[in-house]
Design goal:
Blueprint (H helix, E strand, L loop, with lengths): L1 H6 L8 H20 L1 H6 L5 H9 L2 H13 L3 H6 L2 H8 L1 H18 L6 H38 L18
Helix pairs in contact: 2-5, 8-9
Length: 171
């Protein structure tokens, strides 16, 4: 996907919004098919193509979606470039790390909440808040430390001096 993006220099298409919607639909369709028991029954379970289709079948449609969204210019990609959405994307790794722990905590106290919707809303808000805290307190500082260590220990981009063809003996 990155190779195509570089090769075609992020070429935009005439109907970029329509292409974004189609790519998104293709991803949803491929994920729905691979999740469908009826579709899985059509594929032999240990046949390599069948197994790949079940476990990784949506990777090609996802690559198409990534390319189309990276090109941008459509209404869907513009909506996803909203500052709040971008920030949620930045803290998503922290959310991935914390969501199961938060779910286990909330399952213990879920019975004392007034409704399942209230419990779910509190769970979502608390998970996002904890993710933001981890992102700013741990992930970002660690990223800065790693980048500074990398730049400190990175080899210089200086070419060595060429050896002389007839070295004279040193005296």
């Amino acid at each position: 996907t990155a190779f195509l993006f570089k090769k075609y220099n992020g070429h935009r298409f005439n109907k970029q919004t329509l292409l974004e919607i189609a790519a998104l639909g293709l991803v949803i369709l491929s994920m729905a098919l691979t999740a469908s028991q009826e579709f899985r029954m059509l594929l032999p379970p240990y046949y390599p193509v069948g197994a790949w289709t079940i476990w990784s079948g949506s990777c090609i449609p996802m690559a198409v979606l990534i390319y189309v969204m990276a090109v941008g210019g459509g209404k869907v990609s513009k909506a996803l470039s909203n500052r709040v959405i971008v920030y949620l994307g930045e803290i998503s790794f922290s959310l991935y790390l914390v969501h199961l722990t938060m779910l286990c905590i909330f399952m213990v106290y879920a019975q004392s909440l007034p409704s399942s919707f209230a419990g779910f809303s509190i769970y979502i808000a608390a998970s996002i808040a904890m993710s933001a805290l981890l992102y700013h307190a741990i992930e970002n500082p660690c990223r800065r430390i790693i980048k500074s260590l990398y730049s400190r220990f990175k080899k210089p981009n200086v070419l060595p001096r060429p050896l002389r063809e007839n070295p004279s003996p040193e005296r």
